[in-house]
Design goal:
Elements lengths: L50 H27 L5 H14 L29 E9 L4 E7 L2 E4 L6 E6 L8 E8 L4 E8 L2 E9 L4 E8 L5 E3 L1
Antiparallel strand pairs: 1-4, 1-6, 2-3, 2-5, 5-8, 6-7, 8-9
C-alpha cells in the first residue's frame, strides 16, 4: 500500500498590525488593577478663553462711542438736524453706551440776548402862557416868575412855553396882558397842558392877569 503524503501544517495567520504583546491577565474582582503596558494619555488642554472676542468687543464699543459723539457734536454745532439724522445719532449713541449709563444731552445753542427796548426820555415839565381874543390896537404882554420877568407879544393871539421849576426855588408864575385902546382878550397859564389860572379884560387899557403858585404837596394852583 502506498502511504499518504504528509500535509504540512498551516502556518499561523499573521496580524496586519504586527506582533501584539499579550494582554495581561485580569485581576480578580476587587483586586488591584495591573499596570497598563501603554503610556498614559495626557489630559486635554483647558479651553482658551475668548480673549480675542472680548478685545474686539471693547474696541468696537469705543469706536461706536467716538462715532456717536462726533455725530452729536456735528448736529449740535451745525444747522438743525433732520428727523433722519436725529434718529441715526440716537441709534449710534444707544449702541455705544454700556449698560447702566445715560447718554449725554447734546449741547444747547446759545440764544442771542434780546436787545433792550429803548426808552423815551422823560419830558421836562412845562408851563405855558396864552393870550387869545381880539385886540385891534395891540396888547402889552409880560410873563415869567418872581425872579424872571420877560416881555411877551404885542398882539393876540399869542403864546409861549417855559421849563417849569418844581424844586421850590420859584414862588409863582404870572401873565399880564394890557389892551392898547380897546378889544376883548383872555389870558391863561397852563401846567402840562391843563389850564390852572385864567383872566379876562375888555375895552380901553384894561389888564388881563393870571398867576399860579406851588402848593405844599408840590402841585400848582391859582392865586
Amino acid at each position: 500500500m502506498h502511504s499518504m503524503p504528509e500535509i504540512p501544517p498551516t502556518p499561523p495567520t499573521g496580524s496586519p498590525y504586527g506582533q501584539q504583546p499579550p494582554y495581561p491577565p485580569r485581576p480578580p474582582y476587587g483586586g488591584v488593577p495591573m499596570p497598563s503596558p501603554f503610556p498614559p494619555v495626557p489630559p486635554k488642554p483647558p479651553k482658551k478663553k475668548h480673549t480675542t472676542a472680548i478685545v474686539l468687543s471693547v474696541v468696537g464699543g469705543v469706536l461706536a462711542v467716538c462715532i456717536g459723539g462726533s455725530m452729536v457734536a456735528a448736529i449740535a454745532g451745525g444747522s438743525d438736524p433732520t428727523p433722519e439724522e436725529k434718529a441715526a445719532a440716537a441709534t449710534a449713541t444707544d449702541k455705544a453706551q454700556p449698560a447702566g449709563t445715560t447718554a449725554a444731552a447734546p449741547a444747547k445753542k446759545k440764544s442771542k440776548a434780546a436787545s433792550p427796548i429803548p426808552t423815551k426820555p422823560k419830558a421836562k415839565p412845562k408851563v405855558t402862557f396864552e393870550v387869545s381874543g381880539s385886540a385891534p390896537s395891540g396888547v402889552d404882554t409880560m410873563y415869567g416868575t418872581d425872579s424872571d420877568n420877560r416881555q411877551g407879544g404885542d398882539s393876540s393871539p399869542w403864546s409861549t412855553t417855559m421849563t417849569r421849576d418844581d424844586s421850590g426855588n420859584v414862588s409863582y408864575y404870572f401873565l399880564t396882558a394890557q389892551l392898547q385902546g380897546g378889544g376883548d382878550i383872555t389870558c391863561k397859564i397852563l401846567v402840562d397842558g391843563k389850564a390852572i389860572a385864567t383872566g379876562h379884560a375888555s375895552g380901553g387899557y384894561n389888564i388881563c392877569q393870571a398867576q399860579i403858585v406851588q402848593g405844599w404837596t408840590g402841585g400848582w394852583k391859582k392865586v
